[in-house]
Write a structure and sequence with these properties.
The complex is a heterodimer of chains A (225) and B (98). With 225 residues, chain A is an all-alpha fold. Chain A contains 7 helices and no strands. Chain B has one domain. Classes of the chains: A mainly alpha (225), B mainly alpha (98). Chains A and B meet through helix 2, helix 4 and helix 7 of A and helix 1, helix 2 and helix 3 of B.
Chain lengths: 225, 98
């Protein structure tokens, strides 16, 4: 039997699964699969963003007033921390593709430290809101005369959206831990670093969600009376 | 193609641009532009997200199929938003029939 190009490719690449023709096709299929998952995530968060927009539309003043309880300095710092973590994640993917294992592990750990810092700053903000009785529910306290119902809607959405985002960060930290272990065991080669790549896509997606949460929750209501 | 290795210089440039845009959006939010505050804030957010998608997420160097899938996802999100708002924004247009 004459050897076809596909058979030759499989003989040369032990990591090539039988349903793919080449390593490149295998890699593209993995990225595309991850993107299809991320598209479902866009619609998952999209539902919350839509809910937020409708309630803001109906309670513009109350939302603007409530959003003034946000600490803009902490929000800006956290945005920068998360963008920095996206840079280190991109550099981790780069290090895997160029076969530098030490750098890969270093960048993965840097990403984890930055992600952990983001969650720490978020926890400081949550503590502050809760101490000021801004968590929705029976303990909610708001100045007399202000629209407490509208403010509770704002804080419900604030905790739901940033909480879901924080949950994604926690899952991301779990994924990064797994990657560090895999990298230490030498599982990645320049030909096969798909787990690093698709985890990078996930991490950047979580960054993008925050890029939209930050202006919507912290910034846009500062001047409405 | 997907095995295109992006230069760290490009990553650094994107990172610095994202930081500058974050500073700009925070500073501009302190100036009263009326309804334009929202437009500017969301415009900057879309710009930042596009940079992340194109460079950090390698879509600029990926097959067209990837961009098509993302475009499809955003299109479905727009259907969700536009159809819901076509309801909410027009509820006061007709007198109640009941």
């Amino acid at each position: 039997m004459a050897e076809t190009p596909a058979l030759a490719a499989h003989a040369a690449e032990p990591g090539l699964q039988h349903q793919f023709e080449s390593m490149e096709q295998q890699k593209e299929a993995s990225s595309l699969g991850m993107w299809i998952f991320l598209v479902t995530e866009i619609l998952f968060f999209g539902g919350l963003f839509l809910t937020y927009t409708i309630y803001r539309w109906e309670n513009a003043r109350a939302f603007a007033h409530a959003s003034r309880h946000m600490d803009i300095a902490l929000g800006t710092i956290n945005t920068a921390v998360l963008i920095f973590s996206s840079l280190t994640m991109a550099m981790a993917v780069h290090s895997a593709a160029t076969n530098r294992r030490r750098l890969l592990i270093g960048f993965l750990i840097a990403t984890m430290i930055l992600g952990g810092s983001f969650l720490g700053i978020k926890a400081v903000e949550y503590t502050d809101h809760i101490q000021h009785h801004l968590f929705p529910g029976p303990g909610f306290r708001y100045p007399a005369g202000a629209d407490a119902r509208g403010a509770q809607l704002f804080f419900s959405l604030y905790f739901a959206m940033t909480g879901l985002h924080a949950l994604h960060m926690v899952i991301g930290l779990g994924i990064l831990t797994t990657l560090v272990v895999m990298a230490r065991r030498g599982r990645f080669t320049p030909e096969y670093s798909t787990p690093v790549e698709v985890s990078g896509l996930y991490w950047h997606f979580v960054d993008i969600v925050w890029i939209f949460l930050f202006p919507l929750l912290y910034l846009i209501g500062r001047h409405l009376r | 193609m997907s095995d295109h290795v992006v230069s760290p210089k490009i990553y650094l440039g994107v990172f610095l641009t994202l930081l500058v845009m974050t500073a700009i959006t925070t500073v501009v939010s302190g100036i009263d532009l009326g309804p334009w505050n929202t437009v500017v804030a969301l415009g900057i957010a879309v710009f930042k997200a596009t940079l992340v998608v194109l460079f950090f997420m390698h879509v600029k160097y990926s097959p067209r199929l990837t961009a098509t899938v993302i475009g499809g996802g955003i299109f479905w999100l727009l259907i969700l938003i536009v159809l819901t708002f076509s309801d909410f924004a027009t509820r006061g247009w007709l007198p109640s029939l009941v």
